[in-house]
Fold:
Amino acid sequence: MTPDYIKTPEGYAYKYPRAAMTADAVIFGFDGYELQVLLIQRGIEPYKGRWAFPGGFMRMDETIEECAVRELHEETGLLSPYMQQLGIFSDVDRDPRGRIVTTAFYALVKMESVVGQDDAMDARWFPLSAVPALAFDHDHILRVALKRLREDLHFRPIGFELLPQKFSIPQLQRLYEALLEIHFDRRNFQKKMLATGILIELGEKDPTARHRAGTLYSFNKEQYDKMKHDGTLRLEF
Amino acid sequence: MTPDYIKTPEGYAYKYPRAAMTADAVIFGFDGYELQVLLIQRGIEPYKGRWAFPGGFMRMDETIEECAVRELHEETGLLSPYMQQLGIFSDVDRDPRGRIVTTAFYALVKMESVVGQDDAMDARWFPLSAVPALAFDHDHILRVALKRLREDLHFRPIGFELLPQKFSIPQLQRLYEALLEIHFDRRNFQKKMLATGILIELGEKDPTARHRAGTLYSFNKEQYDKMKHDGTLRLEF
DNA sequence: ATGTTTTGTGTAGATTTTACGCAAATGTGT
DNA sequence: ACACATTTGCGTAAAATCTACACAAAACAT
Structure:
């Protein structure tokens, strides 16, 4: 097969002009009270000094998903988080460097898994209420990601990705309430959540509780997959 | 701003290699009995003679959405259908011509709006049960599109995009049953659908009915938008 | 006219959701 | 040690919704 490009002194030449492709990751975390976003401070122009999502250019030997995973690891140390395609953003003038099209991903991580980060990296968590003006069209991407996260939370068990391995139902409820900005009745939430059958009771107590400690649970992925497969699952929050 | 490319005798040269970008549209229609897909027969290699989704290369002065709309119009005559991003497909070897990344869209159209098509175009509707082996990774894209269509149908009023302006509730039910491959109780379906409040009764009868004709309705988009905005909407089918 | 198919409406019983009562567990202050 | 506030776990009655049908009217075929 002939290659689709010609190598010239000036670089890789194509018959028609091409856009460059990047992947960016909107990383969400939860600190127990508020939704958090992981941002990187840009060290070079354009938008030097501004905060942006971790991301970078796609190589010729990797898919856009592999690119997102690689850049995320390089820039934040994170490995294999829960990650989903969010969408492609291709406005002609979204990047001052030229025609650069990005695929945004949204990722959910347990904040505890990022604490031991290299201090040299300019990565920082921002609570959603204090996110600064971002580089490129990342403000727009963030709004789309938030909308998607809230929609998905209603009928996918993604809340567990943001909590520690072991969590209590009240913790889970605080997560839902913070993300969806609504209030659930404490007792009905517990009943409904346990009724899904995708929680494993651990018989331990939440050591961080200030008063009576809640029972700790973990997410039963096997049971979830099984119930999803044969359609007996009843989510919807 | 300096351009991000250099024009050479060989074409457009970039410092690093770049993938080409295309948009492809999975067009769904409904004939009253079965879900249909609009395909184009390829006239050139690769995959000459095989069927594929309409689509083509993105220009430097258009977004990927504009590209999808343009290619769709050029290849099928369709204008402004209901169209949504499906996802980006970037497997390294998905196209034998080289590194070509595609963004797939899924579109819903009223089949009546495509009937007067130019006969010279090699576009044809295929019932889902008779779709041939497709070019590139389009088989895979079709499976993803179907999954997405079925998910969306549960809580978005997209069924209306596939039916004529005026339709009866039994027609709508046949659509839901064909797409989701499940059976609804006729009387409960009617009640629930009317209870949403997003249908306008037209006071006319379905002229295509073979026995007692159903009452015709149209989709009340204003009411839908209003109810969606203030959260009083109750869909879920 | 009579039978068949299809649509429109109603209703009883089962199920689910909602709103809230109450007791147990745990930290705080005296 | 004891009263008190806060939080969790469980239960229950009433309201709302869903499910499974019954029945009659409309329209075509013979």
Summary: Residues 168-170, 186-187, 190-191, 209-215 of chain A lie near DNA strand D (CB under 10 Å from a C1'). Residues 103 and 125 of chain A are 22 Å apart (CA to CA).
